[in-house]
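To fix ideas, we close by showing one paired sequence and structure record:
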Amino acid sequence: MAWRPPMVGARATWTRTITADDVEAFARFSGDRNPLHFDPEFAAGTRLGRLVVQGGLTTALFNALVAMELPGPGSVFLHQEWDYPAPVYVGDTVTAEAEVIQARADKPITRLRCVARQQDGIEVLHGECLVYTMRPDGPGQPAG
């Protein structure tokens, strides 16, 4: 399959409501059992005021967006830079949005501007990522 770069300015979104089950599943996988995620009394005593979700759950929305929507199947991250200006709480619905800011014609590499917002529009993540899109070589074709 030949590489067809996405158009600069193309956008895609991925939305999910993050549940307590998601927080628990992420903790089982990652080992992140920070009391900010699990101990309501501890979290209430911080400036956050209540339980927050792990940042990895927010960035995971971009894993899905990149792999499934833009640039799409076969895409993997080469580089990511994320800032987290506000917390995400259990029950928040978060929408991740990516916009193509650069797409190489000679290689399947795309640079995306990324922003995630809660249901009330508050920005909870912003940054950029660089993505490589792998394509099947096809039967009988040498890899490379």
